[in-house]
Design brief:
Blueprint (H helix, E strand, L loop, with lengths): L4 E5 L3 H13 L3 E5 L5 H8 L3 E5 L8 H13 L5 E5 L2 H8 L4 H6 L1 E6 L4 H13 L26 H30 L4 H32 L8 E4 H12 L7 E4 L6 E4 L1 H17 L7 E8 L2 E7 L32 H11 L3 E8 L2 E9 L2
Parallel strand pairs: 1-2, 1-3, 3-4, 4-5, 7-9
Antiparallel strand pairs: 6-8, 9-10, 10-12, 11-12
Length: 375
């Protein structure tokens, strides 16, 4: 029998790696794309037998998935679409066959995250084996995404809570999938088991970082984060932070500052936290051989620090959102991150009487600036 192609739409690269390994092991050909915008092209070039798409937990609910599923089903009614989601409410709705818009969008089935490999494969083969007539067809009489363009009814913290749960569930899903894959290979393929363990450890680290960031963010929001404010020699703090980010002998980060100590009023540890965030972003979002320039200048009653990189930059229409919690630029989807660092850094700068802003960003790089009061 010909190998069947399954198109997977998933923005989390670690999760898509697990799902595509599961698909490949089960004998399918997996084609993975990270963005919903790429669906039409992938449909045309890979001609999949089935599409599995992630649920989009954004400010307007699942609109992308519902409308995209309907679009696929309208264009090619023979291709069933499965939704993979961590949204318990959506799953419960679908299981109870209460979801009008899921049926209207023509979803052939749902896969919960985290998933059991066996259940996942069983759902997929059930959908692939069912006759085309068994799948719901798109119902144009139902308004599938009534929430598009409307302000969300939920207060913002409910949305934030959803996002936090989603962000914590993603690594759990990957860990579970990797452990299941590893278990299958115990005693047979030590390298595969080792990879499963390594990926799982990296995911545990990701969750730990995320929890630390969440705690800082919540403490800052509640104004209960204690700072130890005093005179700080910024030039020394910056030089130390840079040294901790330089790998080996390669000096890619340059540093220019006025002669002598530059003393500001702030909390040395929290200034280091801001610098770590700016430097790790400059490194993460640019090619390893490109330089990063850090400068300190005195401007009236403030010291201004700039971190300039020559990396991928942030699209012009997204610039206003970089300091929003959990915001990740469309250019950053394949690079690991929580979207909390800049938000926390800006709050930390403000708590120290300073400011943090994005001075410039384009395809040629970005410049972030931090101002702190001179002692
Ligand atoms: P993350 O953990 O995702 O890096 P941040 O809050 O530090 O979170 O940054 C938010 C988003 O801003 C990033 O996901 C990325 O899209 C974008 N960003 C931040 N710094 C840079 C940079 N130096 N170059 C390009 N994009 C950046």
């Amino acid at each position: 029998m010909a190998i069947q192609t399954v198109l997977l739409v998933e923005d989390d690269t670690r999760l898509s790696e697990v799902v595509s390994s599961v698909l490949t092991l089960a004998g399918y050909h997996a084609v993975v794309i990270s963005e919903h915008a790429l669906i039409p092209r992938a449909m045309a070039t890979s001609r999949p037998r089935c599409v599995i798409m992630d649920g989009e937990l954004n400010a307007s609910g699942h609109n992308l998935s519902w409308s995209d599923a309907a679009a696929i089903r309208r264009v090619d009614p023979k291709v069933p679409v499965l939704m993979m989601t961590a949204d318990r409410a959506a799953l419960a709705e679908a299981e109870a066959r209460r979801s009008t818009r899921s049926r209207a969008a023509g979803f052939a089935g749902f896969i919960g995250k985290p998933f059991e490999v066996q259940t996942f494969l069983a759902t997929l083969s059930r959908v692939l084996e069912a006759p085309v007539s068994a799948h719901p067809s798109v119902d144009d009489r139902v308004v599938i995404f009534p929430d598009i363009g409307r302000p969300r009814a939920d207060p913002p913290d409910v949305h934030l809570f959803d996002t936090v749960v989603h962000e914590l569930r993603q690594p759990l899903t990957v860990i579970r999938g990797q452990l299941q894959l590893g278990r299958r290979h115990v005693g047979r393929d030590p390298a595969r088991v080792q990879t499963a363990i390594d990926v799982s450890i990296a995911q545990v680290d990701r969750m730990t970082r995320l929890l630390g960031d969440l705690l800082d963010s919540a403490r800052l929001a509640a104004n209960v984060l204690d700072l130890r404010i005093g005179p700080v020699d910024l030039a020394t703090v910056v030089a130390t932070a840079i040294a901790s980010h330089e790998a080996g002998d390669a000096h890619r980060i340059s540093f220019r500052w006025p002669h002598g100590p530059v003393v500001v009023i702030g909390d040395a540890d929290r200034i280091t936290q801001i610098l770590d965030n700016l430097l790790s972003n400059a490194i993460k979002y640019s090619e390893p051989e490109l330089p990063i320039e850090v400068t300190l200048t005195l401007q009236g009653v403030e010291v201004e620090l700039r971190v300039a990189d020559h990396g991928i930059g942030i699209p012009a229409d997204e610039l206003a959102r970089v300091f929003t919690p959990f915001y990740r630029a469309s250019t950053a989807v394949s690079i690991a991150g929580t979207g909390l660092g800049l938000h926390i850094s800006r709050r930390l700068a403000e708590r120290q009487g300073g400011r943090l802003w994005l001075e410039a960003s384009s395809g040629a790089g970005s410049v972030f600036a931090l101002a702190l009061p001179i002692a």
